[in-house]
Structures are given as structure tokens and as C-alpha cells.
């Protein structure tokens, strides 16, 4: 399996955010997106997740059944955690597990355990700290099996131990044949990772003399 | 896919029960508006009875309007909408599930409150059953068409007023045929059955058009 991006151009308004980007990530590989604020990391991840429509270019997953889109095969972890504050940790995860297409209370319990949230399982998300909420949001990665992980600044508000925990999770996912693409300012401690540095393309108006 | 759909409906209903705010506000608003009507219009029982079906319908539309903006708003704020969009469920089905949950959690309670409020307006005894029946059949259109307005105004700050302007005109057919089905029974003019069937047709049409339009609007909002 291989995630292939060809001649991708992303625009907001008439402004190009990413221009002529081509890369591929095969299973067993991780890609770190780096670049200054506003370089287009989040927009690129949203485009890969199918939330943002590219102006031109293609994004596809090679080696999967033809009808499967990237969207249905990716986990998208954005800036917000996708948690309902009045639901408990278990209820939040059970919903995502049902919605994303797997069932099994054991999976939810295992995920909570691996994110070291087992003691908080009956606590509503509203009462959790920012870091605990982030870990609960990341636990979604474990309740449904999807080959492509798209992580947008996953370490925000995590402490060092939790950030290491996340690094281990991503490493394990990649080692088992998955693909991970993460926009980050911090090293995640990934073993098999390449780096893609995004720079804002020259605006046409600026390029002209 | 059905599993995802049901999971989403169940979650939204659970949240509506647990958070309670939107439904409570709508029911309270409905109660207060209808209570104020006899105070404003005077105690002429005959006149109140004549305008009762129309007033109950209009107040119901306004009460439902209050809760429409919340259909997608909280999912957008906490990032759930992004994840919902990456599920295997098409966005149209997501919009349908959320509209359905809105109807069950708001449309049905408002409909059940209406006959109680009919007492305050001296509603004709023969009109109670038709009123509840037309509201039960007509309110899905409010939720499913209202969701389109909710999706369109998702990122607009202070979208509350905008949603009223966008959505209320769409409710006019529901209002006309809902009221005429009730009044034609009260006045014994006939044609109640036809009005009721047209009302059902409007609701069935909105079940199809609403989610498609909502999903198109959501796709724009997610960019």
C-alpha cells in the first residue's frame, strides 16, 4: 500500500498554499511535515483526509481495493479532539468505535489502558485536563483499524511521557505496515521517518517583476 | 453503515437528554409565547378558538427555530464534524442522522406539548387530533430543511438571525397546509384530506432534499 500525491495544488481564495507538491509514502513509513506557521501543514493534512478539495492534482492510495478512498482509510486527528464534554471517556470512545465501524467493548478498554486513561473511564470529558483530553482524542486511533494516520500537531498539551507514548504508538503502527503523516514542531521519536519541509510558494504577484 | 447511522442518532439523542438545554429552551419558549397570546388578544373565547391552530403552528415553528442552530454547531466546535466526515458514512447520511435526532428530540416533544397549549387558546374539541396528526407529519420538514440553514450558517458568527431569514421562508408550505388541514375540519369545509396528503408529501420531499443540501453546505464549511 502506498499513499501517492501528485502535482498537488491547494488554494485558499486565489492564494496558492501548496503548489506542485509530489510525494509518496509507502506502508511502513512515517512522514513528518515541518515548516513555519502558515506553511500549509494543516491544509495539506485536511486535503489528504478528503476534507479540503485540492485545486488540482491527485491523492490516491495504491494497492487497496479500487473503490476505497483515502478518506475512509485514514484517521484524522485535528486541532480539536472530537470529544463530547458531557460523555465519559468510555462513552466517547465507544461512540467513535461504533461509528468508525468496529465494535467491541474490549477494544475501548484496551485503548484506554494503552493511553493510560483507565482510571478516568467513568469521568466526563469536561472534567479532564487538556492533556488528558488530548490522550483521549488520540485513543480514537486505537479503537478502529485504519491504515493511514494523519496527525495534526498531535503533541499539543501532552507532557513528555505522553509524547513518548504517542511516539511508541506511531512506531508500532508503522512497524505493522501502516502509514503515518504528522505535522509537528517537536520530534516524535520516530524510527523510520522522513521529513517533508513545506515552504509557502511564491505568490504570482510577488514573482512578477 | 447502518451501525454508524444508528450510533450517531443514539449519541445525539443521548446528548439531547443529558444536556437538555436546547429542548428545554424550545419547550419553554413555546409555552410562554402561547401563554402570552390570550393576554395580548383579549379574552374573547370565540376569536381565540378561531385563530388557535394558526397560532399553535406559528409558535411551534419559532420554538423549533431556536434549537436549529445547534444541530451542527457543537460538532463543529469540538472537532467531531471532521471525524464524522472521515467515517464510512456519507455526509448526506450524517446530515440525515442528525436531522432525525433533532426531530425526535425537539419536533416530537413540541408536538406533544401543542394539545396542552390548545387548552389555553380554546381550541375546538374536534381539532385536537388533526392538530397533533398534522404536526407529527409536518415537523420532520422543519428538522430536515432547518438542518440546511444550520449547515449554511455554521461558520457565520451570530448565525442565529441569519438562519431564521434563510429557513423560515422554506417553512411556509408546511405552515399553509398544516393549518388548512386543521381548519378545514374545524369549519367543516372539506379538503382536509388533500391538505394532509400534501403536507406529508412536503415532509417526504424534505427528507430527501434536506440531507443532500445540508451535506453540500457542510462540505463547503469543512474546507
Report what the structure shows.
The complex is a heterodimer of chains A (209) and B (223). Chain A is built from seven helices and eight strands. Chain A has helices spanning 41-48, 89-99, 105-114, 130-138, 140-143, 160-175, 204-207, and strands at residues 2-12, 15-26, 29-34, 56-62, 74-77, 148-152, 179-183, 193-197. In chain A, the strands form two sheets. Chain A has a five-stranded parallel β-sheet, sandwiched between helices. Chain A has a three-stranded antiparallel β-sheet with strand order 2-1-4, with helices on one face. In chain A, helix 2 (89-99) packs across helix 3. The termini of chain A are far apart. Mean pLDDT of chain A is 84; it is low at 204-209. Chain B has ten helices and no strands. The longest helix of chain B has 31 residues, at 192-222. The interface between A and B is medium-sized, with 31 and 25 residues.
Largest interface: A-B, 31 and 25 residues
What is the string of SSEs of chain B from the N terminus onward?
Answer: HHHHHHHHHH
Q: Write down how many β-strands of chain B occur, each being a DSSP E stretch of 2 or more residues.
A: 0
As a whole number of angstroms, the C-alpha radius of gyration of chain B is: 18 Å
Q: Biggest sheet of chain B, open or closed, and with what strands and sense?
A: none
- What number is the mean pLDDT of chain B? 90
The general outline of chain A is globular
Q: What's the number of helices of chain B? A: 10
- Residue stretches of chain B low in confidence (pLDDT < 50, at least 5 long) are none
Please give the oligomerization state of what you see.
Answer: heterodimer
**Mean pLDDT metric of chain A:** 84
Give the helix proportion of chain B (percent range).
over 70%
Figure out the total of helices of chain A.
7
How much of the polypeptide of chain B forms β-strand, as a percent range?
under 5%
SSE arrangement of chain A, N to C = EEEHEEHHHHEHEEH
Strand order of the largest sheet of chain A: 5-6-7-3-8
Amino acid at each position: 500500500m502506498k499513499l501517492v500525491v501528485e502535482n498537488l495544488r491547494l488554494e485558499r481564495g486565489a492564494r496558492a498554499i501548496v503548489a506542485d507538491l509530489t510525494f509518496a509514502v509507502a506502508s511502513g513509513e512515517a512522514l513528518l511535515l515541518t515548516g513555519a506557521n502558515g506553511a500549509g501543514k494543516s491544509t495539506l493534512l485536511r486535503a489528504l483526509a478528503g476534507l479540503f478539495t485540492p485545486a488540482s492534482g491527485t491523492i490516491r492510495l495504491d494497492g487497496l481495493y479500487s473503490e476505497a478512498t483515502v478518506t475512509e482509510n485514514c484517521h484524522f486527528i485535528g486541532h480539536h479532539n472530537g470529544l463530547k464534554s458531557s460523555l465519559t471517556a468510555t462513552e466517547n470512545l465507544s461512540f467513535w468505535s461504533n461509528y468508525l465501524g468496529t465494535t467491541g467493548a474490549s477494544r475501548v478498554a484496551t485503548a484506554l489502558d494503552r493511553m493510560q486513561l483507565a482510571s478516568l473511564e467513568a469521568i466526563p470529558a469536561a472534567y479532564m485536563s487538556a492533556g488528558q483530553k488530548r490522550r483521549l482524542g488520540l485513543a480514537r486511533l486505537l479503537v478502529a483499524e485504519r491504515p493511514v494516520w494523519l496527525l495534526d500537531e498531535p503533541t499539543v498539551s501532552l507532557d513528555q511521557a505522553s509524547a513518548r507514548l504517542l511516539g511508541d504508538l506511531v512506531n508500532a503502527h508503522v512497524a505493522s505496515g501502516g502509514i503515518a503523516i504528522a505535522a509537528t514542531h517537536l520530534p516524535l521519536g520516530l524510527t523510520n521517518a522522513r521529513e517533508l519541509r513545506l515552504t509557502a510558494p511564491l505568490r504570482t504577484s510577488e514573482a512578477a517583476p | 453503515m447502518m451501525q454508524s447511522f444508528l450510533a450517531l442518532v443514539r449519541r445525539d439523542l443521548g446528548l439531547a437528554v443529558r444536556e437538555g438545554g436546547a429542548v428545554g429552551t424550545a419547550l419553554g419558549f413555546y409555552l410562554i409565547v402561547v401563554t402570552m397570546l390570550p393576554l395580548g388578544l383579549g379574552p374573547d373565547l370565540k376569536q381565540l378558538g378561531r385563530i388557535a391552530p394558526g397560532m399553535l403552528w406559528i409558535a411551534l415553528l419559532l420554538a423549533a427555530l431556536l434549537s436549529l442552530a445547534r444541530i451542527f454547531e457543537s460538532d463543529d466546535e469540538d472537532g467531531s464534524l471532521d471525524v464524522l466526515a472521515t467515517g464510512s458514512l456519507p455526509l448526506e447520511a450524517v446530515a440525515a442522522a442528525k436531522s432525525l435526532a433533532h426531530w425526535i428530540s425537539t419536533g416530537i416533544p413540541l408536538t406533544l406539548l401543542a394539545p396542552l397549549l390548545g387548552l389555553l387558546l380554546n381550541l375546538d374539541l374536534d381539532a385536537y387530533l388533526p392538530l397533533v396528526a398534522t404536526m407529527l407529519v409536518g415537523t420532520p420538514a422543519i428538522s430536515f430543511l432547518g438542518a440546511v440553514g444550520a449547515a449554511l450558517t455554521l461558520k457565520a458568527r451570530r448565525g442565529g438571525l441569519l438562519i431564521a431569514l434563510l429557513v423560515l421562508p422554506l417553512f411556509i408550505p408546511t405552515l399553509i397546509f398544516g393549518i388548512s388541514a386543521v381548519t378545514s375540519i374545524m369549519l367543516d369545509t372539506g379538503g382536509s384530506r388533500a391538505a394532509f396528503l400534501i403536507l406529508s408529501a412536503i415532509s417526504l420531499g424534505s427528507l430527501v432534499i434536506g440531507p443532500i443540501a445540508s451535506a453540500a453546505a457542510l462540505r463547503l464549511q469543512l474546507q
